[in-house]
Amino acid sequence: ASNGPVWRNTPRVCEDYWSEFRHCKSFWNRFHHYYAFGAAPSCQQWKEDYNNCVEWEKNRSATEALQTSERKRVAEQTKFTPLWKLRQGPPKDWHLPLNHGKPEDS
């Protein structure tokens, strides 16, 4: 028995996949997703990831499926463009006092 941490080859703990699946199936999340996107979310991938993780813990199989799923999820998150243009530095007048209480000139 070693006293060091146990090395895992899965990206997450299996309980994380189950928690994500339960959240995905929750009434509030389904309502919000339907309101925002016009369709109920597909939670099947979270369930498959959980089952693959449990399979990996039992006999160290299904590692490739989990890694592929995580890579796909990260790629989907990074494909969106930001809403605002990021600044390279502060505005030129950042040190001036704000005009609180003064009406703006229109």
From TrEMBL:
<feature type="region of interest" description="Disordered">
    <location>
        <begin position="87"/>
        <end position="106"/>
    </location>
</feature>
<dbReference type="GO" id="GO:0043083">
    <property type="term" value="C:synaptic cleft"/>
</dbReference>
<dbReference type="Pfam" id="PF11326">
    <property type="entry name" value="PANTS-like"/>
</dbReference>
<dbReference type="InterPro" id="IPR021475">
    <property type="entry name" value="Pants/Emi1-like"/>
</dbReference>
<feature type="compositionally biased region" description="Basic and acidic residues">
    <location>
        <begin position="90"/>
        <end position="106"/>
    </location>
</feature>
<comment type="similarity">
    <text>Belongs to the UPF0545 family.</text>
</comment>
<protein>
    <recommendedName>
        <fullName>Synaptic plasticity regulator PANTS</fullName>
    </recommendedName>
</protein>
